[in-house]
Amino acid sequence: MLGLKLLTDPRWANIAESNLEEILTDHAWCEQKAASNAISLITQNSEHEDLVHELTAIAIEEMEHFKMVIDIIKERGYELGRERKDDYVGQLMKFAKKDGSRNQAFIDRLLFAAMIEARSCERFRVLSKNIQDQDLAKFYHDLMVSEANHYTTFLNFAKKYSKDVDVDKRWKEWLEFEGNLIQSYGKKEQIHG
After folding, report:
1. Distance CA 52, CA 128 (A)
2. How far apart are CA 23 and CA 42, in angstroms?
3. What is the rounded distance in angstroms from the CA atom of residue 167 to the CA atom of residue 72?
4. Smallest Cα–Cα separation from 107: which of 152, 157, 55, 51?
5. How far apart are the C-alpha atoms of 128 and 77, rounded to whole Å?
6. Is 7 helix (H, G, I), strand (E, B) or coil?
7. DSSP code of 46?
């Protein structure tokens, strides 16, 4: 369904589970950044009423996920560490087109968001199926479903609002780029690491 070119090695879940405090901290900040991204898209594209409505709901949901993760951190006696730099997301941002029309930049920002949601969904699936901690396995299964919905929302808005971009063609370019990029990741206790 997601069209990702390279799936995560299930053994990555063992890396993640070996340091739950780190993966949970990284995950919490990913949720916060996802909410910020949705808010940024709203701010820059407020003329699209349906987008404002849907992305407001996503921003709220992402902040609810942030709270859920920090609650798990607290319940387990861990500490929410400082925000982590996400090199994977930084590389995706570099791939996004910024030098074309306003519409091209908008569409690529939506595809950028869809890509992150797709990979997060896939990583949550790996965690849900491969970690021993059954409470966290269920938690990540539930989040996987949510991320899949976000992925389709961003992709559908890209298709709806494109004026001068062949969205299917550009999405294939995103998938190819991400497929090559992700080969360097999956070795750390980070959601995208």
Report:
1. 31
2. 29
3. 38
4. 157
5. 22
6. coil
7. T
Q: Which residues neighbour 62 within 8 Å (Cβ) at sequence distance 6 or greater?
A: 31, 32, 34, 35, 38
What pTM does this model have?
A: 0.94
Long-range contacts formed by 47-56: CB under 8 A, 24+ apart: 48/157, 48/161, 51/157, 51/161, 54/153, 54/157, 55/153
Which 3 state secondary structure label does DSSP give 98? Answer: coil
The per-residue b/e assignment along 62-74, b for 16 or more CB within 10 angstroms, e otherwise, is bbebbebbbebbe
Task: Report the sign of the C-alpha dihedral through residues 47, 31, 82, 186, in that order.
Answer: negative
**Structure tokens of 85?**
């730099």
- The two tokens of residue 144 are 């996987």
Q: Mind listing the pLDDT tens digit for each residue in 107-123? A: 999 999 999 999 999 99
Residue 16 exposure: Cα atoms within 13 Å on the Cβ side: 31
Tell me the per-residue pLDDT of 77-97, one tens digit each, with 9 for 90 and over: 999 999 988 899 999 999 998
How far is C-alpha 109 from the chain's CA centre?
Answer: 13
Asked if residue 106 lies in contact with residue 165, where contact means CB atoms within 8 angstroms, the answer is no
Helices (H), ranges, the chain = 12-17, 20-44, 49-75, 87-95, 102-130, 134-161, 167-181
- Write out the two tokens for 142: 């539930």
The 3-state DSSP class for residue 163 equals coil
